[in-house]
Every structure is written in structure tokens, then in C-alpha cells.
């Protein structure tokens, strides 16, 4: 009985313990799968943006322009300015991140990791290499920053950055190179995010891309965009350096000739001005808005609003800017120059030009061709016309402050005065035995009589001078000398005695009295 009574108890206890365990097990698995699916759904696409060139300040300005809402020109500057996370770009490879919002500024489309580098030095190549992996190639884009404060350095800077990128990309493993080649093939075979109405070609509307001469000759494996900042400084170039439309057109054409070889895009930007920077970068990174359709239209009429999207440009369109340009020679020279390792950039480019290669000395280098026309004002006071060797003077000349100039001149005069006094003290005046002015006879022997014609009469100057002296001497002698007080008293007494004698004269009567 006891045994039979224990068995049901044992079965019941076993059954009670098994039911909670069976319920908790499936419940735990369900929640974990739900959390994993929710996390996967909210995971943001990761994009990489490699920003090369510029200064830490210009890089921050670029990030502010990219994070701001500049699509609407009616928006105020305060509203356009976005909230930028902390930027660490003072040393070596900098980093920050940006959240790309949708058109309604509520939903986040992607998170962009921005890597920043200011100098094209080979020592930074190991820092860039880990950024290019088979998984990140399709999510990566490169931006090169240039500034209108020094447009004469653009081609040289662009060459060094392209050399550094080529050095890094060539050193990658074979798997990554295969992915890069596939990525470039996809870019060549489609027009991604471009408004086909701007090209006016049937090939563009069908999605096929016809590769012309000089296009995609030097693909880098990742999309490239060149951003020229500070178009508001164009007026300063006109005012202070005498630039005209010829210089701006030359730069525009030259840059497009080089960038079309890499399939790169070109855009001019201005602080707080509505532009298509968002659209250009989103197109290269593959970020698409669900509320607003991405549309890019080439702009090449207004010189401060240039926009050349990827896969749009060609030599035929570039030749329209200026006639007589040797696009073939520039393109060939550029392909040769970018094969070398990068060189350090120098201020003013004086040393860089002096230590240039033989091709640069012969004038066949693309950099040399560019810098012969767009010259640095610090090295030359004139800027030549495109295609001519003669320069032009600047319109305005910088002058120093008046008080500063006078202060410097006073110091110079004081120094000269001290030097003169020292010279006088060191060199005494020689003592002459006889002054020539004291010996008139010797002077007259050498000079002779001085004569001049007066009214037809020949007059001797010496005789005339002597006569004038004699006449003045006679006049002085005729004048009465100044009498002393004693002489005046005697004279007065004599007059008094004379009149008194007339009054007291005997036998006479005073004058005028009647006679008796």
C-alpha cells in the first residue's frame, strides 16, 4: 500500500515539475527571436565617407554644409545649420559620424562614418588601408576638398591625393580588388540618380552609358567627388588679382578634363547657399529617400554654381567651354603623372616646381601646363591670359599705413643723421692756406671783367659797383652826426642870447613897435 501510494505521488510531482519547464522554454525562445528581428529591422545602413584635403576648419565647414538642410533656398541660415557631432581632425586620421535624415527630418536613412585626412603623405597610407574591405567597398565614397583661396594649387593637390589613393588601392588583397573592379563596372554601366532630361540623349534614358575618349581611363575603384569650396572668394580674385572670365573658364575646363578620367563628379559650393551637395553624396553612397526622389541636373552656365554629376561629362561637352584646348595632351600627361608615389606639398609651390621632373621642365606635365596659366600671385605679380605669355598688372596695390610708413622713415633719417655726425667727427675739414675770396686779384685773373649790355651801352659791372659804393659813402658823410647832450645845451643858450640881445639893443625899438 505504501508503495502504491508513493508511485502516484511521485508521478504527480514529476508532472508538476515538467509543466513549468515546458512552458518557460518556448516562451524564452519566442522573446529572443522577436528582439533579434526588431534589432535587425532598426539597424541603420552603414556608409563610409573618406574626406581628403583642406584644413581642419574647411573640413568642419564641409561637414556643416553636408549636415545642414540646403535644399531649399528659402530656408534661413540658422535653420539650415545642422547639429554636428564632435569632430576629431587635428591630428592624423580624423573621425566623426553623421545621421542622414529623410526629407521630413524625422526618419534616419543611414549613418555615415566620416574619416578626415589633411595631408597626402605616404605615412598615412596604413591608416587608410583598413577602410577598404570587400564588404565596405560598395558603401564607400571619397571626397577631395579644394578651396578658392588658392586655385593655383588645385591640380598639384589633386595629383598627390590621386597618387596616395592609387598607392593604397594597389596594396589591397586580390579579393578586394575584384570587388572594386565590379563596383566600377556597375558605375560605368548606369547613370545613377541623374536627371536624364539634362543630357538630352536617348542612351541616357535607356540607362546605357557610351564610354567616349578620355572617360573612365583611370578608375579608382570607388566613387570620387571633388568639392571646390568658397565660391564667394571669386570676387576677391577679380578685385585684387585682375582675374577675368578667361581664368575661371580655364580652371573649369581643366578640372573637368582630369576628373572625367576617374569618372568623378565636380561641384562648387558656397557657405549657407542652396546647393546639390546632399544629392551628389547620397548618389555616390547609395542613399535613397522614400519621400523625395533623387534628381541631379548638370549646371555649367553660372560660374559659381558648377555641378557635373558622374557619368554625365564628355570631351565634346568640355570643348564647348574654350576652343583650342589640347584635351588629348592633358589627359595623356595626367595618366603618366599619377603613376608615381605622392610628394609632399610645399607652400607657394616654389620648391616643388624647382625640383620638378623632366616632363614638367619641358612643359608636357599637366601640373606645369596648369600652373603656367594660373600663377601664384606670391611668386608673380601678374597672371597671364590663357594661351599667352604676357602678364597683366594688378588692379589694386596694397599700401602700408601712413603712420607706420612715417615711423619707419623717421628711424631711417635718425640713423642717417647719426652716421653723418660720425663722419664729420672722423673727417675734419681741411685748412686752406689762402681763401680765394680774399684775393680778388687772383680771381679776376681767372674770371676777367664782367660786362653787360644796358640799353645799347656796354657797362662794366665792377665800375658800376664801385660807383654805387662811393655814392653811398658820400651820403653817409653828409648826414649830421648825432649830437651829444652838451652840444644841444650850448646851442640852445646861444639862441637865447641872440634873442635877448635884440630886445635890449640901445637906441632901437623892438620890431613892430610904433615910432615916436
From TrEMBL:
GO terms for cellular component: cytoplasmic dynein complex; meiotic spindle pole body; microtubule
Sequence ranges of Polar residues compositional bias: 1-20
Location relative to the cell: Cytoplasm, Cytoskeleton
Main location group: cytoplasm
Keywords: ATP-binding, Cytoplasm, Cytoskeleton, Dynein, Microtubule, Motor protein, Nucleotide-binding, Transport
Amino acid composition bias (Basic and acidic residues), ranges on this chain: 464-491
ATP-binding recorded as keyword: yes
Keyword ATP-binding part of the UniProt annotation: yes
Region listing for Disordered, in residue ranges: 1-39, 338-366, 459-494
GO BP terms: microtubule cytoskeleton organization; microtubule-based movement
Top-level division of the source organism's lineage: Eukaryota
InterPro entries: Dynein1_light_intermed_chain, Dynein_light_int_chain
Composition skew (Acidic residues), residue ranges: 351-363
One annotated GO molecular function: ATP binding
Protein name (record): Dynein light intermediate chain
Organism: Aspergillus puulaauensis
